[in-house]
What does this fold into?
Amino acid sequence: MQKTNFPKSLKKGDKIAIISPAGSVEIPQLDKTLELIKSRGYEPILGENLYTKYQNGYSYAGTEKQRINDINWALNDSEISAVWASRGGYGCQHLLQDLKLTEFKKNPKWYIGYSDNTVIQSYLLKKGFASIHGQTIKTSSFGVTEESYKLIFDILKGKKLNYKIDSNSNNRVGETSGILVGGNLALIYALLGTPHSFDFTDKILFIEDIGENFYALDRMIMSLELAGVFKKIKGLIVGGMTNMGKEGENKEYEESFDSFSYQLIADRISTYHFPTVFAFPNGHIYDNRPLIIGSEVTMKVGKDVKIKFFNHLSTITHHL
It folds into this structure.
């Protein structure tokens, strides 16, 4: 089994590169979090094309070449201690064939993001490096909890995450352990069959999504089924499912944990026996707690749910 490499902890004064690997952003959308980074004692270093706009059927943060140059700079510059994506959207797939890790391999650093950044995190894990599936610099229209950012800074400081959450009626009880993989379901689905797809064997899979019709959600879950993913994994964690179905028809459209989406997923995996957790607070939701992709985790599902991460020295338990 490939060993996962974890970046060293950050110290005050370290530099964090801020880049836009996918969709474009406006300056005011990042100001609050950039100030938060500074208040924590770190120095945000803005990528050359952080605020660039390039229209090509979608508003990208620059051409593919511009975005590739920015991410390769951020990953490989020896003065940078972490890389934090401004947002997701669409466009990270464009970068996969030109990513360079020459210097990164000598000095691994945390890559932080979620949504479309799932493909970057899959790429990094295929190369043996952990990353943080957590809130981007830009927050969604509904905002984000202070704890969502605080826990990212805890990881950067070297603290280990432990979570304890309430049970959900769709959960499947049991205990398991394995390397955590996954992220946004649409991107996990998009990478299936490519060299950049996650290796699911004996892993614990995390999925979350936003803005999908129910039939599209079912199609993606069916693709994982047909690809044999559910035969390979040792556990499943389902995070936020929000803005699912059609607005005006789905009474839970604005909810973080859409119950029909959960029932659809539960029905599709009903013939399997791995422990399953629903309603984990990570995804395109207000309470977006970070996960460490590539970390060894243990998962105990019973009257409540306990998830422990094994990669750092100190431990903090978060009761959610």
The chain has a mean pLDDT of 95. The chain has two domains: 15-139, 162-319. The longest strand covers residues 174-184. The longest helix spans residues 64-76.
